[in-house]
Amino acid sequence: MSTLASFESILTVADGLNTSDIHLSDRCYPTFRLSGRLVEQTDLDQLTPITLQGFCKVITDDRQYQQLVEHRSIDLAFTSKTGLRYRVNIYFERGCPALAIRWLDGSFHSLEELRLPKQLLKLAQLKDGLVLVTGATGSGKSTTLASIINEINETRPCHILTIEDPVEFLHHNKQAMIHQREIGRDVNCFSDAIRAAMREDPDVILLGEMRDLETMNAALMAAETGHLVFSTLHTNDAIGVIDRLVGAFPGEEQSGVRQQLSMVLRAVVTQTLVRPDNATGRVPVNEILIVNSAVSNLIRNHKPEQIYSVMESGRALGNQTHDYALALRVKEKLIPREQGVRLARKPHAFNELVNQLLKGYN
Predict the structure, then answer these.
(1) What pTM, to 2 d.p., does this model score?
(2) What is d(CA 120, CA 162) in angstroms, rounded to the nearest whole number?
(3) Cis before residue 97, ω within 30 degrees of 0?
(4) I need a surface site. Which of 45, 124, 208, 333 has the fewest CB within 10 A?
């Protein structure tokens, strides 16, 4: 069996088990993430440095392999012979290459099919500003954003520009015209791409990730100049993203950035995937902050701790806290109450929320 065929055979087994992630590393069996849990596949061959090195060579082109040699890590997209797409991160550990592979569901699902809150549809109708989708690695941020971008593509005659590393979901022109730029292949870095975007007449910009200060600054400027910008950050709550973003800037710039953010931020959606007890699959739990004049004022005056109470009292606007989102999942019988209590940030108040929802109160 050729090296490429051996690599693809692992992907085929993973596909048959409905695997979300694959880990390949030295002296280990291929390990799959199934419904959130890592499971070693001892029926497959144990991996060796020679095998892993071979995998790296057959799934990269010359430019990518040279980048891997120089920088010791690389992100890339790989399409199997069966047409399935994967995001691959190759990195070195103990001097040997290792691969983290994420299956990319190439089909687009509606927000309803993904069990996402219906108020996210309103984000697709925004005309300008900044929308952030946050959460841990593997929490489904890219899938949620792809669904929103697809909604725009299906309903609005506009120009959508995506900047990704690598391109994960392949979009095709529908109502909108859409161009997708990949870091390393079409443009050098995120900050260069978003600055260049100002000359490419976009209405909507999807920025795969705000990784550095320069990119954050460019994204804020793009949102400030009348574009609708979507991006991601790695934070676990909607309010924390504000401090994370402002805190990335030097101290003397933070007051100005807070002012800028208060004007352009439209919404923050934090996503967590929960695996129900004694069940397969995972359920999204979304904390949502919809920015209105009250929230803008609190951002501007550096009072993020007061935003939480605005979220609790502003459910009619689409806001929902993490615990309220959990309580909704309990009401919908997607997760058991006991699990919700364990995951809640305020367990005692959470029980009361569930009781109110079961009685029909919002």
Answers:
(1) 0.87
(2) 19
(3) no
(4) 333
